[in-house]
Specification:
The chain is an alpha/beta fold. The protein contains 13 helices and 11 strands. The radius of gyration is 23 Å and the shape is globular.
Length: about 375
């Protein structure tokens, strides 16, 4: 007797339906756009606890500062590339229904005689309002972005943001702030570097800050006529140090223990990725990494040994970064030589993150909690 077929055998299997990801509520979204000397970058995010969750992002090399060093003006071609990038950003903002945003431009637009012509062109072509911010605000936003990486043991803090057209450095004294409150005290700087008198919290004090008009692109352009690779690197290091001569501490060796440098830039994250041997960039491995000055020096010496052709082919550097990596390395190495620490905290974050934190903190939508 043939066995009985189980009931339902032979029927088509029932499909397992995965629900589509829930579209975030537009009223919870914030956007931040950073138009720098080299790139146009944007983040769309929503608050999540004491941090934020990135919903969408955009990054495009527009090389806005091309030719600026010689003409003092933004070229028509670079302005055209920028407007094209801004059109894409407009589409993303419209698709997500974002209403709260800050879209800022930095050093290239500050220096260019026709910087405001670009903001008018962007407004006319895309409807987006691009704002040229001052160096102090750029420095403050870079500091805020790094708040989650501030060590509770840090008594003195230097935040370094190496951009395309300028380098911002902010020196902060945290000795009066209880250790557990130190990261939060940096976040509270969203309203300005000067502490509010009526604040119930111990405040981080800005000892000094500077915006050096030399970034990876502008420093490179200063010595573009020097053919010898090692000589060019040495000249860039010397020139950056000369421009930083009035912004260096004179402390003794024992100050190293409580001193922290946090560095944010494409140069610093690239050096970190090279140190880790990453052939494919991984933000989770880079952001928050602590490197010694010896480890950084070793990577930079490897770059010098490779030469321009070797760097161009090195997958750890990438084609977009290879032309700028040595000028950025000259800035980084100079800073570590002048300041009393032999360690650097690597931050894969910057102006966009600072803009988001500042907007969310001002609106009170970030929870009070550990970073």
């Amino acid at each position: 007797m043939a066995p009985k077929r189980p009931k339902g055998a032979g029927a088509f299997p029932k499909a397992v339906e995965h629900p589509a990801p829930k579209k975030p509520d537009p009223t919870t979204l914030y956007a931040a756009l950073d138009l720098g000397t080299n790139s146009c970058r944007m983040l769309v995010a929503q608050p999540k606890g004491s941090q934020f969750h990135v919903v969408d992002s955009f990054s495009k090399s527009v090389q806005l500062g091309t030719g600026l060093e010689t003409t003092g003006r933004l070229s028509r071609a670079s302005m055209g590339r920028t407007v094209q990038a801004m059109r894409i950003c407009k589409q993303k903002l419209k698709r997500h229904g974002v209403k709260r945003m800050r879209l800022v431009a930095t050093e290239a637009c500050r220096r260019a005689k026709n910087g405001h012509d670009l903001t008018r062109m962007v407004k006319r072509e895309t409807g987006l309002q691009l704002e040229i911010i001052k160096p102090e605000e750029e420095a403050r936003l870079a500091v805020i972005s790094c708040a989650p990486l501030v060590s509770t043991k840090a008594e003195q803090l230097l935040v370094v943001d190496i951009g395309g057209g300028s380098t911002e450095l902010v020196w902060i004294d945290l000795t009066d702030v209880p250790p557990i409150e130190r990261p939060k005290s940096i976040m509270r700087m969203h309203s300005g570097f000067k502490a509010r008198d009526n604040s119930p919290f111990a405040a981080a004090k800005v000892v000094d800050w500077i915006s050096v008009p030399l970034g990876v692109a502008t420093l490179r352009d200063q010595f573009s006529d020097v053919e010898d690779d090692a000589a060019r690197f040495a000249l860039m290091s010397w020139f950056f140090e000369e421009n930083l001569s009035e912004f260096t501490p004179s402390w003794s060796e024992q100050d190293r223990e409580g001193f922290q440098i946090i560095g944010t830039s494409g140069t610093i994250t690239t050096v970190a990725a090279s140190h880790l041997g990453l052939r494919r960039y991984d933000r989770n491995k880079v952001d928050g990494l602590r490197m010694t000055s010896d480890q950084i020096d070793k990577v930079i010496h490897e770059y010098l040994k490779l030469g321009p052709n070797g760097r161009h082919k090195d997958p750890r550097i990438g084609k977009d970064r290879q032309a700028l990596i040595m000028s950025g390395s000259a800035i980084l190495q100079t800073l570590l030589r002048l300041w009393p620490t032999d360690r650097l905290s690597v931050a894969d974050r910057g102006l966009r993150e600072g803009l988001l934190y500042a907007q969310m903190s001002a609106d009170g939508v970030l929870e009070e909690g550990p970073y």
